[in-house]
Amino acid sequence: MVRILPSTHYFGAARPRRFLGQTRSFAYTGALILVASAAMGKLSDLLALAQQRARELGLPYAGALTPAEAHEVARLAPGAKLVDVRTRAELDFVGRIPGAIEIEWQFYPGYAPNTHFLAELKRQADPESLLLFICRSGHRSHRAAAAATEAGFAECYNVLEGFEGDRDAKGQRGKVGGWRAAGLPWQQG
């Protein structure tokens, strides 16, 4: 339910506006604009930071994001796509990210390259879309983001640390860095 404020709260207007069948005040609309503006500002800041990292590291794509930053960018950017390039075995046995586009960069077993990777990406994502590539640790997604950039995709970002992150002192993944260790949304395959 939307509360209609007295007309003094409409920034000088005499009446509230009708919007999608509901009465909304200018104060409410103004608050939405401020929230949207803040979100766009945060998105711009995150992308600028990722682009700065890419320049500093000499990366061949638009930027590099931490898992938490990538999750926030995916949430804030209309049309952004998270592209998970892990193998089917990894997706099935380690876990999936809800809503991600899943295109294998390499096939298990043997890790033969997916020669149709770019064709599959073109079928599932617009070349002008903001694309966030993720794999297990950030290495395959680095190569996928570079290949997509070279193929003409304009806004490619790599998710540093990947889904599982680096190995811990015991040689195990999933506890040091990565999407899953950051507590971001995932589900068992």
Automatic annotation (TrEMBL):
Pfam families: Rhodanese (PF00581). Coiled coil: none annotated. PROSITE patterns: RHODANESE_3. InterPro entries: Rhodanese-like_dom (IPR001763), Rhodanese-like_dom_sf (IPR036873), Thiosulfate_ST/Rhodanese-like (IPR052367). Residues 76-175 form the Rhodanese domain. CDD domains: RHOD_1. SUPFAM superfamilies: Rhodanese/Cell cycle control phosphatase. This is Rhodanese. It comes from Candidatus Desulfobacillus denitrificans. The lineage of its organism: Bacteria, Pseudomonadati, Pseudomonadota, Betaproteobacteria, Candidatus Desulfobacillus.
